[in-house]
Request: fold
Amino acid sequence: MRVAIAGAGAVGRSIAGELLENGHEILLIDKAPTAISVERVPLAEWLLADACEITSLDEAALQRCNVVIAATGDDKVNLVVSLLAKTEYGVPRVVARVNNPKNEWLFNESWGVDVAVSTPRLMSALVEEAVSVGDLVRLLRFSHGDANLVELTLPPEAALAGTRVGDVAWPEDTSLVTIIRGTRVLTPNKEDVLEAGDELLFVAAQSREEQLEDLLSMRREDAAG
Reply:
């Protein structure tokens, strides 16, 4: 998979390193000469250019990219890069970094963004996830379909503990995508049995989050009553 990353700062280089380890082809773009540090990510391609300019993106052959990541420290730049990648080059997947949470509402499909990643929101979500059992935590927002990646740790007294995945009447517009059980990551199937302490990751419509939380946090005595 070919991935272009606009912004070769610490965030962009870190993303590039992870993706290179997973076997992907990476192009790092930055307009600041001081940011071009080939020795830090030697396996990546590097381009000294302004990612907000069409001529630069033509040089980067953005139309050949499967994913574009707008990872600069400037939200305006990330929005422009996202819009150009989607509308001018038809990039299938555009991921954008949100630096200021006040700007998060802009990072949607109108600006070409498929996935918006807000570092402050993600950090607060991870704090909530670390201390919350039985509470739904929103980890990531997807622009298309108004869907979110959400997590809930199944509490010990949960009514669904001991229930097969296939026997649960999940709310509409929700999908259980992963079960994290201790150090194991499970791809759920209908025969898997839910256990107390499981971290459950869902892609869910925002309108269904409350219904999903109610279902997962229901206690055995409440279900029996």
User: Anything to note?
Assistant: The longest helix spans residues 75-87.
